[in-house]
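Re: the 251-residue chain
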Amino acid sequence: MNSWAQSEGQPGLGYIFWREGEEGGAGPIAKNLGPERTEAIREQLGLKVGDAAFFVGGDPKVFTKFAGLARTRVGTELGLVDENRFEFVWIVDFPMFELNEETGLVDFSHNPFSMPQGELEALNTRDPLDILAYQYDIVCNGYELCSGAIRNHRADVMLRAFEIVGMGAEDVESAFGGMLNAFRYGAPPHGGLAPGIDRIVMLLAGQTAIREVIAFPMNQQGQDLLMSAPSPVEDKQLKELHIRTALPIKA
């Protein structure tokens, strides 16, 4: 597992082994924690002699995804994953806002047009980073099949949400005036989700790569070899669309 972690671009995978006749656990982490804390970990996880625990750390956006991959690998190698079942789960309560790592300012975390939970009152009274949105996914066997939301249908809520991320009313009117006007005319509450049919077919076909089930898969250069795309564009076509190409200068 440690070698596999390194092959995935990680520095390694921390571990503790619990062996027969050994007080506490074995491994560098166990040695640093000491027998008492190591035993507390074993009891909390419900482990016994012969078991092991693996650890990952670092940036949560990186290590949480890697931890999921590690769990799946262990489950698959030990035959703990039932390949003949479809397990579904709803993912709900996405955060409405997050801190932008580059600017340090509050930004939308996902979809700015979703309805925040608590609506205008939440936007006016709560810490933006504590506000959740009516956004949701359906996941099957670890693959996202559908993504959707309850959409915002109120102009006052939309203006306030964009104000929190530093966008004034004039800017919002300029960028999304048509949507705001639709809200003002009385857009009803609405929402939905969009299923990924190709991902559903992938699961039904017993595949793990979506390229195996889509009609025209592209290669790593973004080319569709079956349709010979992209293809050269004629000057006439460029003129019709008022587009000028700027090809790289060859050395």
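The longest helix spans residues 60-77.
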